[in-house]
Design goal:
Elements (H helix, E strand, L loop, with lengths): L18 E4 L9 E4 L12 E3 L18 H50 L1
Antiparallel strand pairs: 1-2, 2-3
């Protein structure tokens, strides 16, 4: 069973609540650090802070990744919103291209019609 640690909330540069992970490097084995909730899943803000620097003393039970269901939900919603915004931008560009193509085709058809009528 996972237990949440009592600590003040840390937020990364993205504005999301940070997660706590365990270091796996040789220089700092098993040392806890705060990182962006998006790390390593995709684009993240490179937020990093050792847990000891925020006044928290490592307790008996540790959790490699601390965060609630709400934080995970918020991260998923943020990622989905970003991808939807990208799709909307692509659709707008496609719509503008189609509009320009229709206008150009209409102008060409009208000019050819006037050329045929005037002969």
């Amino acid at each position: 069973m996972r237990r949440r640690r009592k600590m003040k909330d840390q937020t990364c540069f993205c504005g999301l609540k940070t997660t706590i992970k365990k270091s796996s490097i040789r220089e700092n084995p098993d040392r806890l650090f705060h990182t962006c909730a998006r790390y390593p899943k995709g684009s993240h803000c490179n937020f990093f802070r050792w847990v000891e620097e925020d006044g928290y003393v490592v307790g008996a039970e540790t959790d490699a990744e601390v965060g609630g269901d709400y934080d995970e939900w918020r991260l998923n919603v943020s990622w989905r919103l970003d991808s939807l915004e990208g799709e909307v931008r692509a659709m707008k560009m496609l719509l503008m291209f189609m509009l320009v193509a229709v206008v150009v085709a209409t102008v060409l058809c009208v000019s050819m019609l006037f050329t045929l009528i005037s002969k």
